[in-house]
Design goal:
It is built from 13 helices and no strands. It has 271 residues and is an all-alpha fold.
């Protein structure tokens, strides 16, 4: 009963014509667009402004306020400010679960956000504890080929690779790479990221030539579609260089970690 009333309240809040709430939403969307273009410092500043406004004009459980906090958490996570971002992700997830239920699409999106924060920190066991049960729920609630399901799958495969559970990781890639290509298209940034991570997994399995060929193919498309400075392109370039270095000196590629940020990369993000 309470859950039904809370869910109805959420719908009413979304529809309620309130000038101040629309101002929060407008600022939040501008901040989110800055995240998408990699302007993280500007995004953080704008989103903090939106959160401060939301605290003045919105109730604590207002969906606009929660969505704004989630966007700020994403901006902080992408700057490697994990303590505050994890706290915000947890808070957003707890609120949406209480208001909408654990299996609502928004709750599932926010749970995935929390899991990505764990992944960025290298907490892959924590990430899998969230993501593996979440994948089954996403398939049932949002569909086997929904964006939520695909996002969940790509993060699970990556965490399995980083934990060196390579048979499980390769199985995930074999299942989902064709789905990504069909649903999102072969040049979509998520598809390219999945392909690059798959190549790293193959290399870690000891099939260096096969893994290198996959990375070369992915990088060529990333250069053309995303550009040399895109985060995915830079990560693939680094992974390919590492793979070739290990191949030339005859060592195991055990140090290759897909999407693991180096100290140099972290310094760049802080500037």
């Amino acid at each position: 009963m309470l859950l039904g009333l809370a869910s109805e309240r959420w719908k009413q809040d979304q529809c309620r014509p309130a000038k101040d709430r629309e101002s929060v939403r407008a600022v939040m969307r501008l901040g989110a667009s800055l995240i998408a273009t990699g302007k993280l410092v500007e995004a953080e500043s704008m989103l903090r402004e939106a959160v401060a406004l939301a605290e003045r004009v919105c109730d604590d459980d207002d969906p606009v306020g929660i969505e704004t906090s989630f966007a700020l958490a994403s901006a902080l996570r992408n700057q490697w400010r994990f303590e505050e971002s994890e706290m915000l992700f947890r808070r957003c997830h707890v609120k949406t679960v209480r208001i909408l239920g654990r299996e609502h699409e928004i709750s599932l999106t926010y749970a995935n956000g929390l899991a990505t924060c764990f992944i960025y920190q290298g907490k892959h066991d924590d990430a899998l504890a969230v993501l593996q049960p979440l994948l089954d729920v996403n398939k049932r609630v949002t569909g086997a080929e929904s964006m939520n399901t695909l996002m969940c799958a790509i993060e699970i495969a990556k965490s399995l690779t980083c934990l060196r559970r390579l048979d499980q990781a390769e199985s995930m890639y074999k299942e989902y790479v064709p789905i990504f290509k069909r649903v999102l298209g072969p040049t979509n940034s998520m598809t390219l990221r999945m392909l690059s991570d798959y190549g790293c997994c193959i290399a870690l399995c000891g099939r260096l030539a096969e893994g290198e060929a996959m990375l070369v193919e992915a990088l060529a498309v990333e250069m053309r579609v995303l550009g040399a400075e895109h985060a995915i392109t830079r990560a693939t370039t680094r992974d390919l260089a590492d793979m070739r270095k290990f191949s030339q000196i005859g060592l195991s590629p055990a140090r290759i970690d897909p999407r693991t940020t180096t100290k140099k990369d972290k310094k760049k993000k802080k500037k």
